[in-house]
Structures are given as C-alpha cells and as structure tokens.
C-alpha cells in the first residue's frame, strides 16, 4: 500500500498550509468513508464544519462572518468551503503541470487514483496519522507565533474557584492528640459554595480517627476539612465551635486534635467528642498553658469538589464515586452509579477513527457550558435520557470528564474532571 500511494502520502505530509482547512477537509473525507464512496460537496462541507467544532482551536482560521453556519448547511459556508480547501486540493492554486491527487466529478469529491479494497483500511490509518501530525504541528506553530490574539482561551475551570493550601502530612486527630507536620504544602481549589475564601487564612487538611463521627456534623476518618486559622484578633467566641487545638509534645513536635470547645460555668473549658465512645478532655490550668486554638472548622469537603480540574486515568475514576473499575461498565462513555445517584460522562473530543455511529458532536461552548450528545441508544424518552434531562428534579448529579484525544505519547490519555 505504501509503495502504491507514497506520492500522495508525501504530498499530504508536505503540502503548504497557511490555514488548517486542507487537513480538516481530509479528516471530513475520512469520516465519510470518502475513499470508498465519494461524498457530495454539500456533505463534505457539512462534515468539515463538524470537524471544526470538535477541533475548536482551529475556528480562529474562519472569517467572523461564519459565526452561524446552520451546522454546516448554510449556502455561504458551502460556497466558502468549495472556494478554499476543495479548490486547493483539486489544483486551483497549483502551477500548471503539477499532479492533482483529488478531483470533483458530478459534484462529488473523489481521489484521482484507484485504491485497492485490501489497501483501504491501512491507507485510511496512515492518512489519519498524517492529518493528526499536520494539525498538531500547525497548532504548535501558530501558538508560538504570537498570533490568535482574538481567541479567548477556555480555562476549563470555573473562575469563581479559589486555590487554597493543602497539607497532606497534617492529619488533624479525631481521637487523642497526634503528632503531625504542616509541611509539604500543595494546593487544591474550592468553588463558591464554601463562601468567601482567603488563601492567607483558609487551608485544607484531613481528619484522622473517629472521635468526631457523630451528631449532625459527623466527621469521619480521612475526611477533607476546610479550616480557618484563628488569632486573638479574629477568634471571637469559640464556645460551641469545632476547633483544631495545637500543643507540643515533650520532644517539641506539634500535635493536633479536633474537638468541640465548651466553656463551663466556672470559666474552665472541656474538649468534647461527638462520638460517645471517646471521653471528653477537661482543660486543667496546667494543660491550658500547653494548648493553642489553631483553627476553626468551616466545613467537611466533598472529595469530588477537590477533584475538579484534576486529571484521572479511566480506571481511577470509579473510586471517586465509591465504585470499582469494571471494563464492561466503565469503558463506555456514559456510566450510571446508582449508589451515588450520579451519571458520569467520559468524553474524548477528537474522535477520529471512530465508527460513524460513535462520533458525537461534543465540544465546549464557553468556559461554563459543554455541549454533550448522547449515544444513539439514549433517546430523550428512555430512562437514561429522562434522568439526564430531569436530573435536578430527580436529585441526580452529572459529572463530566473530558480529554482531547484517546492517546497521549502512545498511551491512554487521562481525563480532566
């Protein structure tokens, strides 16, 4: 196959590209099985528009007049596409005598050479590899040239999130005082649902033990805690609050404990556990000299909240929902986790090489909005379809994991949550 079609593949690898359109057109031709059944120019223009919607950074190449193209069926778009990449591929910009590998005949776009049926599959695979390479090189070249100033980059993370210090080595004991270290600082982001946050005062640590596992605000071993540093100036009343208490052990290392602070009538304090299996700690005058109120508990954080913006391999995603990886379930693009009343959507934006029935038009609309298209089997009237549409009313949550391509560096690419 390579010997038979080396000239065309070399042309594909080296043809001049001032815009991305030549490769977009070839990818659309591939998706329409055009080497076997040449598509009409109208179908080719419509599919090319869909390719651009998936490869959204390339939309900067379009004139502003094509903001609304009726999903690729607009007559102005059809004309524009014929006058540009179609014309370029059929030799409209070539010098006289140059070989033309593609042609238009009876309003269909077709190769000007024969491809043996046994060569079709490897030929299409090699063509797609070159298309991906040329578009990747084109985007990298354009990005380094300082152009594209009219493109608003999608942050993929809501702008109302705040990055806070997270101390993975600082375990706040829910039991007895425990030695821990407030070093190896990392950062995690939280959304607006936790109120106004200040990285200078608020931080994240984890609970250790079960002394606070009880009552209305149960705190379990391993929970993520949002804490606010307190000082004599901003502590206010701490009576009845859940506080992180700090003291030093005999070797000078810091120890931490999480308890409800209650003030007695005689002015003394008791550190109360929510779990009745643990005894309260009476703060004697001697003990009071050793203790310092470090921080006030603001909230117990949903682990999924901390995962927003992070990247996960497919097999690591089920654990976020208390599930185990099962290829028969989790290798699909739409997974329902009944125990968590959750729908998990796993999306690969660039679906080249997929069968026609499995190419969905998924893309970012703006920083806050994603256009997701269900599998063919999920109709609006089906159980899954109704749960997606009416998820808020039904008390269901939807979780989106997105990756640009299926592979990265020859291996499975991770998804961003």
Q: What does this protein look like?
A:
By secondary structure, the protein is an alpha+beta fold. The protein has 3 domains: 2-144; 162-304, Umud Fragment, subunit A; 309-416, no CATH class. It is 24% helix and 26% strand. It is built from 10 helices and 21 strands. The strands form 6 sheets. Strands 3, 4, 5, 6, 7, 8, 9, 10, 11 and 12 form a 10-stranded mixed β-sheet that branches. A 3-stranded mixed β-sheet has the order 14-15-18, with no helix packed on it. β19 (407-408) and β20 (411-412) form a beta hairpin. α1 (2-14) packs parallel to α5 (120-144), α2 (21-31) runs antiparallel to α5 and α3 crosses α4. The longest helix has 25 residues, at 120-144. It is elongated. 23% of the residues are buried.
List low-pLDDT spans. Answer: 146-156
Radius of gyration: 30 Å
In the residues, how many domains can be counted? 3
The percentage helix is 10-25%
Largest sheet: 10 strands, mixed
Mean residue pLDDT: 83
Oligomer: single chain
Helix/strand structural class? alpha+beta
Estimate the strand proportion: 25-35%
N- to C-terminal distance: 41 Å
Specify the number of helices. Answer: 10
Instruction: Count the E strands.
Output: 21
Shape: elongated
